[in-house]
Amino acid sequence: MEALLDTQGLLAGYGAAPVLQGVDLTVRAHELWAVLGPNGTGKSTLLRGVLGMLPWTRGTVRLLGRERARWDARELARRVAWVPQTFEPAEGFSGLELVLMGRSPHLGLWGLTSERDVALARAVLEELGVAYLADRPGEELSGGERRMLLLARGLVQEPALLLLDEPTAFLDVAHQVGALARVRARVDSGLGAVAVLHDVNLAAAFATHVLLLRDGRALAQGPVDTVLERERLEALYGLPMEMALAPSGARLFAPRAR
Ligand SMILES: Nc1ncnc2c1ncn2[C@@H]1O[C@H](COP(=O)(O)OP(=O)(O)OP(=O)(O)O)[C@@H](O)[C@H]1O
Fold first, then answer.
1. Which residue from 58, 130, 175, 205 has the highest number of Cβ atoms inside 10 Å of its Cβ?
2. Helix/strand/coil percentages in the chain, nearest 5
3. Domain CATH number, residue 198
């Protein structure tokens, strides 16, 4: 199966010194990669580097089999969606209109949305349990409501590859689980996804694979069940950790408080 994303030896940064120091990552359809690591370690930089949004990157980045530099931006936006950490909605747009912006790479010459586009946007809002946001003014929304709209915008884009930067930040626990469950359902149907997360237990529950990133390098990467281990998480965060088995069989990780 052709990789949706393939980076080899990715170096990327903003100033003189690289933040990413040679990351290799291959993501295929049916895979949800969680990227875990301490603050400032390069997780968002990895997503931005993949998308070509940084002052400089070295190494190779291939998206759907083609070098990133050879993609036309609009063509790429039909295949790859990015859900950033935050956004400031321009004034005067409703929740539905903000979500519909995800359809723009698919629209024709005049940029007019069709009934199908609107139906799709409403269906995604419904699926995420936030249909009530459709008619709300974007600038009035809370942090969590904005996050749900960002995710909805990424999903209506109908990408082959979805890149999510902390999609669960600001969400209550029900919306965290709801959002990742919807992403995972699409991954099971053939989407490929990369999600920067801070919650190890959400990664354990929803990811198929994990990349542990520390100081711009991969500490470990691979299938979630083999890579997520207490000792590795201790090395990742520099903190004593505990692991327990829930009655369901799920592994639960927590920092050791004392
Ligand atoms: N626009 C920028 N210009 C210069 N340096 C930056 C810029 N954005 C990020 N950095 C630096 O790059 C490093 C990695 O940042 P990045 O945002 O990738 O970290 P992260 O792992 O996503 O962190 P967090 O978990 O805190 O979101 C940090 O040292 C940060 O200060």
1. 130
2. 40, 30, 35
3. 3.40.50.300
Q: How far is the CA of 39 from the centre of ligand 1 (A)?
A: 8
The 10s digit of each residue's pLDDT in 113-153 is 889 999 999 999 999 999 999 999 988 889 899 999 999 99
**Which helix (H) or strand (E) segment is 44 a member of?**
helix 43-51
| Ligand 1 atom at minimal distance to the Cα of residue 41 | 21
CA 60/CA 199 separation, integer angstroms: 29
- Closest approach atom of ligand 1 to CA 13: 12
Neighbours of 143 (CB within 10 A): 10
Ligand 1 atom nearest residue 216's Cα: 14
What total number of domains does the chain contain?
A: 2
Mutate to test the pocket of ligand 1, among 23, 36, 43 (most ligand atoms within 8 A of CB): 43
Read off the pTM.
Answer: 0.95
Does the residue 221 lie in any domain? yes
Listed in sequence order, the residues at least 6 apart from 37 whose beta carbon sits closer than 8 Å to its beta carbon are 43, 212, 213, 214, 219, 236
pLDDT tens per residue, range 179-228: 999 999 999 999 999 999 999 999 999 999 999 999 999 999 999 999 99
Find, among 110, 258, 126, 151, the residue nearest to 118 by Cα: 126
Contact 7, 23 (CB under 8 A): yes
- Residue 132 sits in which domain range? 91-158
